[in-house]
Amino acid sequence: MPKDRPQTRIQQRNTGAILDAALEVFSQYGYRGSTLDQIAQASGLSKPNLLYYFPSKEAIHVELLSGLMDVWLDPLRDLDASGNPRDEILSYARRKLQMSRDLPRESRLFANEILQGAPRIMGSIEGELKDLVDQKAAVIRGWITEGKIADVNPYHLLFSIWSLTQHYADFDVQVRAVLRDQESDPFPEAEHHLETLLSRLLAP
User: Fold this and answer.
1) pLDDT tens digits, residue range 53-90?
2) Is the CB of residue 169 less than 8 Å from the CB of residue 108?
3) In the predicted model, what is the mean pLDDT of residues 154-160?
4) Model-level pTM?
5) Residue 111 and residue 145: Cα distance in Å, rounded?
6) Is the Cβ–Cβ distance between 118 and 125 less than 8 Å?
7) Exposure letters 127-144 (e unless 16+ CB within 10 A, then b)
8) CB-side exposure of 142: number of CA atoms within 13 Å?
9) Cα dihedral: 100, 102, 107, 109 (round 10)
10) DSSP labels for the chain?
């Protein structure tokens, strides 16, 4: 569909339906296992109608990933160098965990892209994401130098937070199966565990 004209209300609704359907399909089957026919069926539109809005499966995937990257980076952008280091890091971890609770399909979409070698977002990873991580790693190093938190590797601290939080989205079925007889909602206890773990790790 031409991008130089504003969309009508119907076009906006159809575009949203396609993207939501694609998110469901991609997060379940991965990029390679998904088809335009599946997306069209899930969106309630015909395949020719879908192709009016997006010329290919890759175009839909790129659109989803582009929007997701901003959402994914927002909590890290908010990590404030002038704030209390422990509170800032715990707040960041808490927001990442909340994203796993509220945006599990988006998390799996991102994970699937990374597992394939990030062919459609490598530019963003090597550019915007790396630049932001470098910037926040410097902030964490400053806190370490000032003796406000323990001497930890800032990059591996962030990697640990990513893995500790995104696990609950990417492996949701496994988490809920294991905890079936203990917790109907794993997130309150997960948040408590995460805060305890990080507080002990960061204590100077």
Assistant:
1) 999 999 999 999 988 888 899 999 999 999 999 999 99
2) yes
3) 98
4) 0.88
5) 34
6) yes
7) eebeeebeebbebbeebb
8) 12
9) 160
10) --SSSPPPHHHHHHHHHHHHHHHHHHHHHHHHH--HHHHHHHHTS-HHHHHHH-SSHHHHHHHHHHHHHHHHHHHHHT--TTS-HHHHHHHHHHHHHHHHHH-HHHHHHHHHHHHTT-TTTHHHIIIIIHHHHHHHHHHHHHHHHTTSS----HHHHHHHHHHHHHHHHHTHHHHHHHTTTT-S--HHHHHHHHHHHHHHHH--
Tokens 């926040």: give the residue. Answer: 136
- Look up residue 197 and give its amino acid: L
Q: How far is CA 114 from the centre of its chain?
A: 11
**Structural domains in the chain plus CATH codes:** 1-55 (1.10.10.60), 62-202 (1.10.357.10)
Contact 58, 26 (CB under 8 A): no
